[in-house]
Amino acid sequence: MIQKKWIFKEFDRDAVLKISKTHGISPVIAIVLYNRGIRTEKEINDFLSCDLDGMHDPFLMKDIDKAVERINKAKENGEKITIYGDYDVDGITSIAILYKHFKSLGISVDYYVPDRIAEGYGVNKEALDKIKENGSTVVITVDTGITAVEETEYAKSIGLDMIVTDHHECKEQIPDSYAAVDPKRKDCNYPFKNLAGVGVAFKLIQALDMSVPLEKLMELYSDLVCLGTVADISPLVDENRILVTEGLNRFKTTKNIGLKALIDVTTANNSMVTTSTIGYTIAPRINASGRLGCASRSVELFLTDDLDKAAELAEDLCKENTIRQQTEQKMFAEALEYIESHPEMENDKVLVIPHENWHHGIVGIVSSKITEKFYKPSILFAIDGDEAKGSGRSVNGYNLFEALENCSDILEKFGGHELAAGLSVKSENIDKFRQAINAYTPESLGETKTTPTVSIDAAIKATYISNEAVEDINRLQPFGVDNPAPVFATKAIKIHRISTMSDNKHLRMTLLKDGKYLDTVGFGMGEYYNYFKEGDFVDVAFGLSINDYKGFHNVQLILKDIKLSEVNN
Question: Which pTM does this prediction carry?
Answer without folding.
Answer: 0.85
